[in-house]
Design goal:
With about 170 residues, this protein is an all-alpha fold. The protein has one domain. It is built from two helices and no strands. Helix 1 packs antiparallel against helix 2. The chain is rod-shaped, with a radius of gyration of 53 Å. Keywords: Coiled coil.
């Protein structure tokens, strides 16, 4: 009977050893599972932070896109304004050319008048000093007018030269 008790006792020891091994293995598995669970939680927190960061970036991108659209609208308005200014400059240039043509015609007329005055002066008797003085005054007026016209013509040419790069930038 002792042998049976001994055998039972040995079996109980074996079962107890197996249970202890199973308990150790289960404890290791439980520790591993807790570590995996902690890693998953950390990953989940990191993913939430990444998601929050992505949402913030998306908001910033939307704001940037809105800003770009506003800038684009402003650029379009500026371009329209520049086109209007260019049209006005072209009209001004056309007017300046017309004025220059008028000035040139006036110069031609004045030159003809001057030539006629020169011929008339040759026919006036030298004794008439007062007539001579009147003619000289006319010459002075014509010279002053011619000088004024030349000054205007030069000023117009300068203004045209200054406007050309703005109107014809490819030639400028």
């Amino acid at each position: 009977m002792e042998a049976e008790v001994e055998a039972r006792f040995n079996r109980l020891e074996d079962i107890l050893g197996q249970l202890m091994n199973m308990f150790s293995e289960m404890r290791l598995e439980l520790t591993d599972m807790k570590e995996q669970q902690r890693i998953l939680r950390d990953d989940q927190v990191a993913m939430r932070e990444d998601l929050t960061s992505l949402r913030q970036e998306q908001t910033l991108m939307r704001e940037d896109l809105t800003s770009l659209r506003q800038e684009q609208t402003l650029m379009r308005e500026d371009l329209t304004s520049l086109r209007q200014e260019q049209t006005l400059m072209r009209e001004d240039l056309t007017n300046l050319r017309q004025e220059q043509a008028v000035i040139q015609n006036n110069q031609s007329t004045m030159q003809k008048d001057l030539n006629q005055l020169n011929k008339t002066q040759q026919h006036i008797p030298q004794e008439n000093a007062t007539s001579h003085q009147e003619i000289m005054k006319k010459f002075a007026t014509i010279d002053a007018d011619r000088d004024l016209i030349w000054e205007k013509s030069i000023r117009n040419e300068r203004e045209i030269a200054q406007l050309k790069p703005h109107i014809y930038p490819q030639n400028g």
